[in-house]
Write a structure and sequence with these properties.
Length: 251
């Protein structure tokens, strides 16, 4: 099993250094709190620390979780840090926490780790990373496409023909760009084969007006229909529906 790794974004490290330098000017009630961030979806042993908040987990930004604690009191005792970790992890039975503390006359934060189950300090790894790395991990991009390939279905040559047609298609596409406009994508595709250039775009919520079953069998005045569609569109937006792009090209 891989060791737990806490990746601390550069901006958090710089902010912690700044508040460490002025800790004497900070009120005591703000000198301790939580470190928040998220765990990498592709690796549960990697967590990104994004920032700190003073208070309980109700103060955490949406979509983040408590990853540890911080203490701006210069050279805090081990017991003080253990008590802080136990308090912040009372709803958990196991796991690891990162502990950010300060040391007198040093700019860099001292980083330690706490095991929730044993209620004691433990060994983990830490790394300072660029903010962009953490941001990239929060964006999941999936592209689905229907690819029409022309080749003979002979089982003996299937793999060769498939590779040949895929490579040919990739060579035809010179460039493309996607621009997010409100709830839809504007797609510009530049290809040697002009048939690739024909694309259509479906707005994320616009399909409501095109659904033939939406008002099936119901006589609805035009103005009321418009209001109902708008209400349903807002509801879908609030439900955070998946953003989809559709193209009618053959690639």
């Amino acid at each position: 099993m891989s060791a737990k790794v806490f990746k601390i974004v550069q901006s958090l490290r710089e902010r912690f250094q700044h508040f460490s330098r002025i800790s004497s000017q900070i009120a005591d009630e703000f000198k301790c709190g939580l470190v928040f961030g998220f765990t990498d979806l592709s690796d549960n042993n990697v967590s990104y620390c994004l920032g700190c908040v003073c208070g309980d987990d109700k103060e955490l930004p949406a979509g983040t979780a408590c990853l540890g604690v911080y203490c701006l009191t210069p050279s805090p005792s081990d017991q003080q840090l253990i008590d802080l970790c136990v308090k912040s992890s009372k709803s958990k039975k196991s796991g690891k926490l990162v502990v950010l503390t300060t040391i007198d006359d040093q700019n860099d934060p001292k980083i330690r780790f706490f095991d929730i189950k044993s209620k004691d300090f433990c060994e983990c790894s830490d790394e300072v990373v660029a903010d962009d790395e953490a941001i990239d991990k929060t964006i999941i991009v999936k592209l689905k496409a229907n690819i029409v390939l022309k080749f003979k279905t002979s089982i003996e040559t299937f793999a060769d023909n498939l590779n040949e047609e895929l490579n040919k298609s990739k060579e035809e596409i010179n460039s493309y760009d996607l621009e997010l406009i409100q709830s839809g994508f504007k797609t510009n595709l530049c290809a040697t084969d002009k048939s690739f250039n024909s694309t259509t775009l479906t707005d994320l919520y616009g399909y409501l007006e095109e659904d033939p079953d939406l008002f099936d069998g119901i006589e609805v005045p035009a103005n009321m229909k418009k209001k109902m569609v708008e209400k349903m569109r807002k509801k879908k937006a609030a439900d955070k529906s998946v953003l989809r792009e559709q193209t009618n090209n053959k690639f």
